[in-house]
Amino acid sequence: MLEATVKKILQARVYDAARETPISPAPMLSRRFNNQILIKREDLQPVHSFKIRGAYNKMAQLSDEQKSRGVIAASAGNHAQGLAMAARQMGVKAIIVMPRITPEIKVAAVRGWGARVILKGDAFAAAAEHAEELVKEHGYTYIPPFDDIDVVAGQGTVAMEILRQHSGPIDAVFVPVGGGGLIAGMAAYIKYLRPDIKVIGVESEDSACLKAALKAGKRVVLDQVGVFAEGVAVAQIGKVPFKLCRDLVDDVITVNTDEMCAAVKDIFDDTRAVSETSGALSLAGLKKYIQQTGVENQTLICVNSGANTNFDRLQHIAERTELGEQREAILAVTIPERPGSFKKFCRTIGKRMVTEFNYRYADADQAHIFVGIQVKPGGEDRQSVIEKLIEAGYPVEDLTDNELAKLHIRHLGGGRPQSHFDEEVYRFEFPERPGALMNFLTHLPQDWNISLFHYRNHGAAYGRVLVGMQLPNGDRSHVEEYFDEIGYRYWKESDNPAYRLFMA
């Protein structure tokens, strides 16, 4: 299969639509990590992502009869734009089924390439199901986003360019992983020509379908998929890609939200490109690889796979960047409720920048403060600050890795209830569409009382919502059964220390 795939890559017809993208040096990153770090710039494609390669190559293999029927795909973003451009270039009718939550910037881009857009369902699965129905009804030709050998071959041309453009030593190539089409094609070409080069996949922690499949020895379906990096939010690795990846991929690294945000900033600092979170995924993995292995003086290449991000999402990315670089510690500290306490606290932490200070009245004797403190990367400096505060007699909770604290508590301005009452608190991801809140409320029993509600728009397909609920007679046994019926992702936060300290 390897040799056959490489032949398809060499014969791939992508350059009628795609362009050969450059490899950009990352001088600041290289100096910081003492390695030569290079970035393959797929954000510079006409559709601002690598997806045009696979979509065009697949369409180029279609017969005239297949093209005459029109092409269709289900997609929430980059594949849709790649297919729409390829179809316009070939004069073929294109229909794209997108979830209703798809950001308007992507819907407008697809329509701008001349494709007909159908908005259906709240998630990709519903859009894909509708696309299949339309194929049966109208006979359209379906163009898959990753699970197809011609799509894989088209994506593999990224590796062909890398090896041609950089003839010197390459120690490892880092590739973002969603459904696996890009890494399968790149791994096939690299391992066939340069088996000494490591091919390392990078996945978001909450959509690591390749890592799960490699561990199980077979393709598995993830129970839940996070959507922060929506370009790689796939529940199951593709069948065709997995056949290649299981033998050719050297390792898979997973990264979290903050690490991706930090990588977005890194790419901007070195190239002035504004990457989407999934586009910066491979750089986040590259940095983590250096930190885990301690390698130096190596040549490491990552792929900036796309730059289709909403402008209003950048605020949230910027907020999380310092945490991703481990340059900020988020702490809950209890101080005496008396004049001069904050001054004494600042004297204790020394000459450090206080990046944030939020106060919640607790009682007449003590106050809980939510504080951000600038620290050095690596984690040791943060621990030093915590130990210093504890030695000075301050009770401290480290909230730096606490999602509830970072998404909600630091932004809440409300006070505490005047008297004690029973409350269950859950964190949700709501689809960003009209009616999502009403759908949630409709599924709740009429005798439940909403006691806390916090929502922020992050410019993404899903909004983050914090909900407190009073339940009649303290009945908690069936709470999550109602949430399961709604279908939104949720996490119980009633025992979260950030909630207990500042809101309970």
UniProtKB/TrEMBL annotation:
Q: Which PROSITE patterns match?
A: ACT_LIKE, DEHYDRATASE_SER_THR
- Keyword Transmembrane helix assigned: no
Q: What keywords is this UniProt entry annotated with?
A: Amino-acid biosynthesis, Branched-chain amino acid biosynthesis, Isoleucine biosynthesis, Lyase, Pyridoxal phosphate, Repeat
Tell me which domain of life the UniProt entry assigns to the organism this sequence originates from.
Bacteria
Among the Pfam families in the record, one is: PALP
List this protein's GO terms for biological process. Answer: isoleucine biosynthetic process; L-serine catabolic process; L-threonine catabolic process
Q: What's the top EC group for this one?
A: lyase
Q: Which SUPFAM superfamilies match?
A: ACT-like, Tryptophan synthase beta subunit-like PLP-dependent enzymes
| Keyword Amino-acid biosynthesis carried by entry | yes
State the pathway, as annotated in the record.
Amino-acid biosynthesis; L-isoleucine biosynthesis; 2-oxobutanoate from L-threonine: step 1/1
Catalysed reactions listed for this entry: L-threonine = 2-oxobutanoate + NH4(+)
The Swiss-Prot or TrEMBL record lists the needed cofactor(s) as:
pyridoxal 5'-phosphate
One of the entry's Gene Ontology molecular-function terms is: pyridoxal phosphate binding
Q: What is its EC number?
A: 4.3.1.19
Which InterPro entries does the record match to this protein? ACT-like_dom_sf, Ser/Thr_Dehydratase, Ser/Thr_deHydtase_PyrdxlP-BS, TD_ACT-like, TD_ACT-like_sf, Thr_deHydtase_biosynth, TrpB-like_PALP, TrpB-like_PALP_sf
Domain spans labelled ACT-like? 329-401, 424-495
Function description: Catalyzes the anaerobic formation of alpha-ketobutyrate and ammonia from threonine in a two-step reaction. The first step involved a dehydration of threonine and a production of enamine intermediates (aminocrotonate), which tautomerizes to its imine form (iminobutyrate). Both intermediates are unstable and short-lived. The second step is the nonenzymatic hydrolysis of the enamine/imine intermediates to form 2-ketobutyrate and free ammonia. In the low water environment of the cell, the second step is accelerated by RidA.
Its quaternary organisation is: Homotetramer.
**Protein family per UniProt:** Belongs to the serine/threonine dehydratase family.
- What is the protein named? L-threonine dehydratase
Lineage, highest ranks first:
Bacteria, Pseudomonadati, Pseudomonadota, Gammaproteobacteria, Oceanospirillales
